[in-house]
Amino acid sequence: MSFLKRLFGPKPVIAKSRYITIEDVKSAPFTKKTVGSGYSMRPDVYYIVASVELGNTTTKCILTATNLNTSRSYLLDKTVKMTRDIREPKKDEKVFGSTVWGVELTKESVSEMVKNTILESVKKAKIDIDKDLDFVVRSTGVTAGFASPEEVGQLIISLANGCLEAGIPPRKMAPALSIDNLPERLQEFSLLEKVVFDGAVVSVIPPTGKEVVANEMEGELVTAGIKLGAKWTNIDFRNPCISLDFGTTLAGRIVNNQEPYARTIGNFCGLAGAVSDALIRGTEKVDQRGGAALDLYRKDILKNADWKKAQLNAQRVHELIDIGKVPENRSRFGTVPVDPEAAYEAGTTLIGCDVGENGDKLDELTILGHEIFEEDGMNTLFATLDHVSALIVKRLIDEAFDEGVVEDGSILGVTGRAGITGRKPQLIMEHTNGRLKDCIFVSDALAMGAAIMARCMNSIGTPHIPIGGRQGGPCILGPRRKIQKKKDDKWID
Question: Which domain of life does this protein belong to (predicted)?
Fold first, then answer.
């Protein structure tokens, strides 16, 4: 390590989203190679996917275009709405659940919000749903606040209805049955005739048996998305790896080094951005029900902050935060429904972040946030948030090491508004430096995960630029074909 790195610490590697226009997608016929090697004579083909996300704080439609020659994914548009702005239920509508912050949801109100968000996004991106859009992936973190599978089912139906009302045909929300069902321009990239989608996403299979945490899909998507986002960097974020998504709720995975399919040996759950939001409400400058740190964040918010005081403040905040292995007798941790017994039977360790028990001390965080704001001001309060998030990462990683679920050579990937903004990446690096092989920060990993999930479901791969498999290793297409052939032969026998 160089003298400067020893003195100042390593510089965070941040994979920021890059934009492209639909005109560029349609007009650039060839991929430029590295300097001096000329041009590829294989025409560029882009796979356009809509990630429709309903979260506790934000609702998004993010349109991505992935170059299938390079496996690099670009943003066509990112439309973000505040979930608290979902209209109130009408008299004849049935409330089936609410967000972590108590915003009531009906099938009709959710569908309307989703439809409007999609239509605004495709209009800004100037894309045609029928001609340009290839696939749609729906996801939600709101299930963390739900009480029953029935409520979750109603939410999933509402998301689907919103997509249909926006004009998205059902065939663009389900995997193709054969290569002939794909658009002609994609068929040469699809490996459907060689391998089928068997549930593994970028060579990782989910925990076996029952679902162990309500937002399992979020963890799956962000892990895949960080792998795809890493293609913009020199970090090989493949197995073994650790992913952390700092949305309102916490999601993420710990993945081992097995081939061809790695196992999910750890899952993260609980509260993340909700911690920062609760503190910010103490300023009384945001909505007391759905207000978020996002409402007040700006690029110069950390100017003139007292970082030493912020560090002390963060230690006070962490006195209210419980981080550890989820006990077997808990059905929720950090408000998120969990099944520790099923997890531990499947060999998956659940590690959670809570404020009190199931968020019952979030109000105390708001009071503490008020004290910090009154004594130190807004700039230092935001610096406090950076230290708070960095300490959450430190404690989660410490717990994972204590539980023995971090394999040698593991790389950490962080995404989400409460994990990559401000000085959080630098502070997180200070806490994890030397413990892990590397660390990467990726914006919009959930949307990138949707892009790669859509490809996996349709077996659209790039064997020459593998996203799955081990760090430094080749594509796992061959071993996958062998596994699936054995299963087919067994079924025939």
Answer: Archaea
Q: Which domains does the chain have, with CATH numbers?
A: 216-448 (3.30.420.40)
In the sheet that 72-82 helps form, which strands lie side by side, from edge to edge? Answer: 72-82, 58-67, 46-54, 135-140
Region of 444 please: left (phi>0), alpha (psi -120 to 50) or beta.
left
Is residue 388 within 8 Å of 311, Cβ to Cβ? Answer: no
Of 277, 311, 305, 307, give the one whose Cα is nearest residue 377.
305
Residue 58: HSE in the Cβ half-sphere, 13 Å Cα cutoff: 22
CA atoms within 13 A on the CB side of 251: 31
Decide: 274 and 361 in contact? Cβ < 8 Å.
no
pTM of the predicted model as reported, rounded to 2 decimal places: 0.92
Q: Which of 276, 282, 274 is nearest to 375 (CA)?
A: 282
Residues in the chain, overall count: 493
Q: Which run of H or of E encompasses 158?
A: helix 149-165
d(CA 335, CA 331): 9
Pairing mode, strands 321-325 and 332-333: unpaired
The string of pLDDT tens digits covering residues 2-45 is: 444 544 567 899 998 899 999 999 886 665 554 444 455 678 89
Residues 77-123 pLDDT 10s = 999 999 999 999 999 999 998 888 888 999 999 999 999 999 999 99
